[in-house]
Specification:
Layout: H1 5-9, H2 37-51, H3 68-82
Length: 93
């Protein structure tokens, strides 16, 4: 997993990190957590800078911001897309 992603999703990929008792996968980002569009853009920047995940513009779908669970799933997909090729190693594509 990318640096820091296990803080959100849990090191074993179970989505049971330190915030698991506070946030549930079903919480809606807009309606329940009151995140507006500016906050969601800031969240994307945070994902890129703090977690080191590249967010391709063509991969951003409004559905990823529906719930905490959909956002964590999206971050896991990004982590998988950004992972180095195990055959050729990091930096070689």
């Amino acid at each position: 997993m990318g640096a820091g992603l296990e803080e959100t999703a849990g090191a074993d990929g179970s989505k049971r990190g330190p915030l698991a008792g506070t946030l549930s996968e079903e919480l809606r980002l807009n309606e329940d957590l009151r995140l507006d569009s500016v906050m969601l853009l800031q969240l994307l920047v945070l994902i890129e800078t703090r977690l080191g995940l590249q967010v391709p513009e063509n991969e951003v779908d409004p559905g990823i911001f529906d719930t905490v669970g959909s956002l964590v799933d999206f971050m896991q997909e990004l982590d998988d897309m950004n992972a180095p090729d195990p055959v050729s190693g990091p930096g070689v594509r």
